[in-house]
Amino acid sequence: MALIKNPALVDFTGTIGKTVYKKRGSVSYMSALPRDYPMPQDPNSVYNRNQILLISKIAGLINAVDLFKMIWKQEYPNSYSSFHEISMANYHSYNYLDLRGNIILTPKTGFPVPSPIFEIKKGKVTISAAPLSLDSGIDPSIEKYIASATIFLMNSNSKTYPGPCFDARKGDRIPLNFECPLKVTTRLGGISVLASLPLTYVKLWSVIFTLDENNKPVHYSEILTWPHEIRSFVDDDSPDLYMKKLYFPLRNKPESHWSAEPPFIYPESSKAQ
After folding, report:
1. What does the pLDDT look like over 191-248, one tens digit per residue?
2. Which of 45, 57, 84, 129 pairs as cysteine with 182 (C-beta 3.0–4.6 A)?
């Protein structure tokens, strides 16, 4: 790009032939018309494009959950953005070539949750486990509630979700209780396809949070995954095929069910068989 020293001679912006004229404030510039370059198709370039696309989408999904975003901000208070830190953590951890891997949801490994059990039934995901331990560093004088946040990966051949789909949800908030078994529920009413096709789930990643009276996270658990065994992602599909169908919801923030809302009624027609 060249600077025009006498802008009075070129008092316009636009394109003439193969030359582009631009004006920024009182300064005028000229440059050659950008040319189209073929997209590199070598394996390294294809990998980088797919990897950046997937990780940026997943980082945006994680960052849209306020519980995740707040703990990343707490861990990296001087960082440019929590989205950047989440992207950096997952770029070398989660690979588009195998979506069964493990997504990094938290900056560090949190307190253990002994033998968690996942149940997907009637439009809800329920995580059950033994009572939380007093040795987890949880302070009941500060931490008053428990909630979960979950990233979902499922595969569908429906018209609404024509392929692999990622989504996120916050679970219901419950009072902190060290004496009762842990039982945290996430409602799926807003994800119609996920609620009606539970057998198409491929993997879930969940984190349990303790919250103060203002619903801000204080401590968090290790990442809980379901299922534990490795299963195929999409039978007979290559990464190139499912990357073209990859779907992320167009929503700024996952729904919260912490307010007083009517309970979700699971449609009779979509109950699991």
Report:
1. 544 444 445 567 889 999 999 999 999 999 999 998 866 555 554 457 777 777 777 7
2. 129
Please tell me whether residue 261 adopts helix, strand or coil conformation: coil
Whether the pTM exceeds 0.90: the reply is no
**Cis-peptide, bond into residue 227, ω within 30° of zero:** yes
Q: CB-side exposure of 227: number of CA atoms within 13 Å?
A: 12
Cβ-based neighbour number of residue 164 at 10 Å:
21
The number of CA neighbours under 13 Å toward the Cβ of 114 is 7
Q: 154: closest CA among 119, 195, 118?
A: 195
- Parse the chain into domains and list their residue ranges: 2-32, 98-258
Q: What is the DSSP string of 90-149?
A: HHTTSBTTBTTS----SSS--B--SS-EEEEETTEEEEEESPPPGGG---TTT--EEEEE
pLDDT digits over 147-173, tens only? 999 998 876 666 655 667 788 889 999
Helix, strand, or coil here: 241? helix
Residue 169: what residue type? R
Tokens of 122: 């009637």
